[in-house]
Predict the structure.
Amino acid sequence: MNIESDMTQTFTVTQLCREFDVTPRALRFYEAKGLLHPAREGMRRRFDQRDRARLALILRGKRFGFSLAEIGELLDLYDTDNTQVSQLTRTIEVAGRRLEDMRRQRDELTIAIEELQKQMNFVNNLLDEKKND
C-alpha cells in the first residue's frame, strides 16, 4: 500500500474497536468530547487516518494518566503548529508533571505495602501463638 492510499484510507467503528480494543461507546465519547472527528455517511461514521492516529494518542495518554483535557490540549496543538515544536514542548511539560505524580504515588504505595506486610506478619505471629496455646 502506498503512502497516498494510506492517507485516504478510512475505518469503521468496528475496525477501530477491534484494533484498539475499545467499545463503540468509547469512540462516541471521544467524539462527543471533540477529540475525534469522523465523517458521516448517513448514520455511519467513517474515521480517517488522522482520527486513527489521534485515538492511538488518546489511549496512550489515558494509560499514562493524562486527563482528557490535557490530551485534548496536546492534540489541538498539532493543528496550530505544523513544526510540532509547541506540541512537543507542552508534551514534555505535561509528561514531566505526570511522571512526578507517578513516582510520588509509587513511593507512597511502596510504604503502604511495607506497612501492610509488617501488620500481616504481626497478625500471623499472633495467630501462631494463639494456635500453640
Observations:
- Residues 92 and 98 are 10 Å apart (CA to CA).
